[in-house]
Design a protein that fits this description.
- 14% of the residues lie in helices and 40% in strands.
- By secondary structure, it is mainly β.
- The chain has one domain.
- A six-stranded mixed beta sheet has the order 8-1-2-11-10-9. The protein has a six-stranded mixed beta sheet with strand order 3-6-7-5-12-4.
- β10 (112-118) and β11 (121-126) form a beta hairpin.
- The two termini are 29 Å apart.
């Protein structure tokens, strides 16, 4: 989030990783695409299931993942998520808070920075530009995948209630 501005709301792209409802500033995501083994364009990928300490999906669930593509000085990188939700507008004064102390002390993932309220649920907020800002390189265990040349329309990715 840009600091020092008189911003009163924030557009947040919601997404699911396992049982977790997460969100990021919508402006951090350049495009949404599906991973493919046929794609000629290859980009490095961070599997957010692994980052959250979850087992990777298998079978049909693995094929349904989505990539949140984030631009950077060294080129694009992508975050693999299970579902992409919708873009919500969050009031900074009434619906957004820093991480609760218990989560802050126990977090293993430095990209978590806050929570917001949405439809009676709490969304954990993730800074997808953190790795780029810190100069962190994707670990050897993480890989690159091909991407479809056409972006996925986010209106078709909103999970059914």
């Amino acid at each position: 989030m840009e600091h020092g501005t008189a911003q009163t709301s924030l557009a947040v792209l919601t997404f699911g990783v396992g049982p977790f409802l997460l969100g990021t500033e919508a402006s951090q995501v350049a495009r949404l695409v599906r991973p493919t083994f046929r794609g000629r364009d290859r980009i490095p990928v961070v599997d957010l299931r692994r980052r959250c300490g979850l087992e990777p999906p298998f079978g049909a669930a693995a094929a349904r993942g989505h990539l949140l593509v984030v631009p950077g000085a060294a080129g694009e990188m992508a975050y693999l998520v299970d579902q992409v939700g919708e873009i919500i507008t969050v009031n900074l004064a009434r619906q957004m808070w820093p991480l609760p102390p218990l989560i802050e002390r126990q977090k293993r993932w430095p990209q978590l920075w806050g929570v917001c309220e949405w439809r009676d649920e709490l969304v954990l907020l993730v800074d997808l530009a953190w790795e780029e800002a810190q100069g962190v390189r994707i670990q050897e265990s993480e890989e690159s995948v091909g991407v479809e040349s056409r972006p996925v329309d986010p209106r078709h990715l909103i999970p059914e209630p």
